[in-house]
Amino acid sequence: MARSKANAKPATQAPPIVSSAHLVSPHSAEMSEFEFGLIVAGNAFHRWVVHCMSAAGLKDLTALDVLVLHHVSHRARDKRLADIAFIMNVEDTHLVNYSLKKLQSLGMVESSKNGKEVTYAPTETGKGYVTRYREIRETCLIDALKADDALNHDIGQLARLLRVLSGIYDQAARSAASL
Predict the structure, then answer these.
(1) Rg value, the chain, Cα
(2) Whole-prediction pTM value?
(3) Which of 75, 59, 64, 62 is nearest to 122 (CA)?
(4) Which residues touch 112 (CB under 8 Å, ≥6 apart)?
(5) CA distance from start to end of the chain
(6) Which of 99, 120, 157, 179 has its CA 20 to 30 A from that of 14?
(7) Do the beta carbons of residue 120 and residue 88 sit within 8 Å?
(8) What span is annotated as the signal peptide, if there is one (predicted)?
(9) What is the three-class DSSP state of 147?
């Protein structure tokens, strides 16, 4: 059966760039390429947030620490530990709790108790580092991106695809856990 030109793959197509050739599926080699890209991009993103926050003056934080500080600062509303972990899709709340305690000890985050609930908010010092991070991000990342409307549209589409795929990975994880 002949392939249509739209579905035909060039005879000289390079093999997929993957980290684990033994996982490449004949049904979707592209998924293995995506996973390798995700690994590389994830590590680059984590390295970026650590270096950006270090340039802002707050050193010796892990990527999770930086991301927790950003989320605690998000929309100027106090956050509960469970909500932070849920939104960030971190299954082990102990990891988020450790970051919160570390940020509290550095004076970046403060906790308050409302009845039985403990909530977290950035301190003025924490807000200052987040503001400085944003300035450095604009200079080093956003200005270098030089995004036009078309690229910004593509980035938005990619963000939506990543959210869809994260749901598929979560469902696949639940399926695997039930085996």
Answers:
(1) 21
(2) 0.86
(3) 75
(4) 78, 118, 119, 121
(5) 38
(6) 157
(7) no
(8) none
(9) coil
Q: Which residues pair with 79 in a beta bridge?
A: 120
Q: Residue 155 is encoded by which pair of tokens?
A: 């980035």
What single string gives the DSSP state of each residue in 77-106?
A: --EEHHHHHHHHT-S-HHHHHHHHHHHHHT
45-82: per-residue pLDDT in tens? 999 999 999 999 999 999 999 999 999 999 989 999 99
101 and 118 Cβ atoms separated by less than 8 Å: no
116 three-class SS: coil
75 is written with which tokens? 């929309």
Instruction: Specify whether the CB–CB gap between 50 and 63 falls below 8 A.
Output: yes
For 108-152, what is each residue's pLDDT tens digit? 999 999 889 999 999 999 999 999 999 999 999 999 999 999 999
Whose CA is closest to 52, among 38, 66, 73? Answer: 66
Reported as a single tens digit per residue, the pLDDT across 93-105 is 999 999 999 999 9
Owner of token pair 């085996």: 179
In angstroms, the Cα distances linking 10 to 29, 77, 150, 152 are 15, 53, 27, 30
Total count of residues recorded for the chain: 179
Q: How many CA atoms lie within 13 A of 86 on its CB side?
A: 5
